[in-house]
Amino acid sequence: MNNIAIGQYLPYDTFIHRLDPRVKLVCSLLFIITIFFVEDFIGYIPFVIILALMIWVGKIPVKSLVKSIKPLIWILLITGLINLFTTEGKELFTIFSLTATYEGLYKTVFMFIRIIMIVVSTSVLTFTTSPMELTDGLEKLFGPLKRFGFPAGELAMMVSISLRFIPTLFEEAQRIKMAQMARGADFESGNIVNRAKNMIPLLVPLFINSFKRSDDLATAMEARLYRIGRRRTRLNEIKMSNIDYVVLISFIVFCAIVIAIYFI
């Protein structure tokens, strides 16, 4: 649990950090959408180059990126095995009447790379954008929908709070686990059923503390006169600069070219 990197922000002063949060949000969304149009490994090369440049410019440690991928290892393995043994094609090997194929192996590796790039791209977004900037960016992006009754401010606030408290909850769970282990609790031994039962001393105080933290947060927001639907003032208003427009337009053109290559 102490290896969780989701929702963490690295407060560096780099070109990626200084970009408008709306630009980073739109580019991340376009990156994820466009990557699903790629149908071969060669098409991944420009995406890998872009990710590598963002990681290098943003000074993001590789260790932090690995932490963001670790929670998905079991999901990747299970879906990879399913693709490996259920895809029809030329036989690769057979285990217990299950036949793996070369086409299944190709599909598995292809899927691994795609998911890892998606996770890394979203991690770059959260590592280089503070929760407050994400909130302001989301609220600005959804602002035009307010005239149709869309709760842009409330949605942005919920996303911001969720991202902010993910690492906090994991840290709290780690502290509770260590305290329970010091009292003799065993979370590792036994079968799956026993280990699930042993998690109760961890989950109960974690939920109680989470509800208490939520109540404290609501009280603090009310004390600061936060009201749903009211326009809030900001210390630093976000504004698009020329560099932001250049980056956004360049990325839109890049994604349009990739989609055109595979779609047309």
Automatic annotation (TrEMBL):
It comes from the Bacteria. Pfam families: CbiQ. The keyword Zinc-finger does not apply. InterPro entries: ABC/ECF_trnsptr_transmembrane, ECF_transporter_component. It is a multi-pass membrane protein. GO terms for cellular component: plasma membrane. Its main location: membrane. It is found in: Membrane. This is Energy-coupling factor transporter transmembrane protein EcfT.
